[in-house]
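Query structure, 279 C-alpha cells:
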C-alpha cells in the first residue's frame, strides 16, 4: 500500500486529527522493521529484549520511539504492546493487502517496440528525454500494475503509470506510449524499459499483481531536513540542498558529508541512514 492509499485508509476508517498525526502514522508504518515489530506484537505483549532478537539492536529504540509517537504501541517498562489504535491499523492493513490482489488474466505480455532519443531535459541539459512504445498497449490493466513498483503511482488524470527511479521519471500511458526524463543514453533507457517489461510480464504470467510490500517514497526534501544545513561545501556540492538532490539521484554518497560524523549530528545521521535504505 503506498503512502497516499495508506493515508486515505486512515482517513476513511479512523477520522484522525491533524495531518501531522496522519503523517506520524504513515511514517511509522512505512518501514519494514517497524511493521515487523507491529506484527510481533499482534498476539500480545513482548519484552523489548525479545523484540531485539529479531530487529537490529542499534535501531530498535529509534523504531520504538516512532511507533510510540504515532500511538501505535505502548511501552510499559521493558514490555511492549499494541494500542487499540495500533491493532486496528494492523488488522485493516492486512485486510487491504488481501483485497488488493487483482486479476490480470486478460492481459497479454508486452514488448518494447521503439526507443527514440528526443530533446535535452530542461532540468539538466546533459540528460535526455526519451520516448518509447510498448506493445500491445496495457489499457485499463496499467492501473493494476502500480503495486509492482516501489516508487510508482497511477494518475487517473493522465491515464498513466508514473514510475520513479532515482532522478529518472518514467511515464507509461495506457495507449502504450512511454516518456522518460533525465536519461543519460538510449542504452540506459533500454535497460530500464527491459526491467520494467520483465516485471510486468512476470505479473501477467501469474495473472495477478501482488499486494505491495515495501512502498516508500523518499525525496530530496526528506533527506535535506536531516543534513547539517551549514552549506560548508565539504561534500563538494554548492549547498546541502544540492547534496540532497544528488544523493537521491545516487550521484554521490552520504559519507561525503563528513560533518555528519560530529556528535551533534549523530541522530541526523541515524535518520539519514534509514532514509538511504529507501533510495
Ligand atoms: S558538505 Fe555536507 S554539511 Fe557541508 S553543506 Fe554540504 S551537505 Fe551540508
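Result returned for the query:
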Amino acid at each position: 500500500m503506498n503512502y497516499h492509499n495508506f493515508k486515505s485508509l486512515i482517513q476513511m476508517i479512523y477520522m484522525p486529527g491533524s495531518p501531522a498525526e496522519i503523517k506520524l502514522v504513515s511514517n511509522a508504518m512505512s518501514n519494514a522493521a517497524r511493521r515487523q515489530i507491529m506484527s510481533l506484537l499482534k498476539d500480545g505483549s513482548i519484552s523489548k529484549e525479545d523484540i531485539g532478537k529479531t530487529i537490529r539492536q542499534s535501531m530498535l529504540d529509534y523504531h520504538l520511539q516512532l511507533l510510540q509517537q504515532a500511538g501505535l504501541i505502548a511501552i510499559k517498562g521493558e514490555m511492549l504492546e499494541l494500542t487499540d489504535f495500533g491493532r486496528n491499523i494492523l488488522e485493516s492493513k492486512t485486510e487491504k493487502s488481501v483485497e488488493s490482489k487483482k486479476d490480470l488474466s486478460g492481459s497479454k505480455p508486452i514488448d518494447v517496440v521503439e526507443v527514440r532519443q528526443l530533446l535535452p531535459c530542461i532540468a539538466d541539459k546533459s540528460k535526455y528525454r526519451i520516448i518509447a512504445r510498448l506493445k500491445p498497449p496495457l489499457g485499463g490493466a496499467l492501473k493494476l500494475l502500480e503495486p509492482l513498483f516501489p516508487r510508482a503511482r497511477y494518475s487517473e488524470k493522465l491515464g498513466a503509470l508514473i514510475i520513479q527511479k532515482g532522478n529518472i521519471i518514467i511515464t507509461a500511458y495506457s495507449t502504450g506510449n512511454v516518456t522518460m526524463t533525465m536519461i543519460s543514453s538510449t542504452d540506459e533507457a533500454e535497460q530500464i524499459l527491459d526491467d520494467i517489461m520483465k516485471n510486468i510480464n512476470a505479473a501477467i504470467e501469474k495473472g495477478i499483481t501482488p499486494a505491495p510490500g515495501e512502498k516508500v517514497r523518499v525525496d530530496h526534501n526528506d533527506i535535506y531536513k536531516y543534513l547539517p544545513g551549514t552549506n560548508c561545501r565539504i561534500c563538494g556540492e554548492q549547498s546541502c540542498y544540492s547534496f540532497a538532490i544528488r544523493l537521491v539521484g545516487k550521484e554521490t554518497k552520504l559519507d561525503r558529508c563528513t560533518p555528519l560524523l560530529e556528535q551533534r549530528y549523530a541522530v541526523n545521521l541515524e535518520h539519514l541512514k534509514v532514509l538511504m535504505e529507501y533510495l
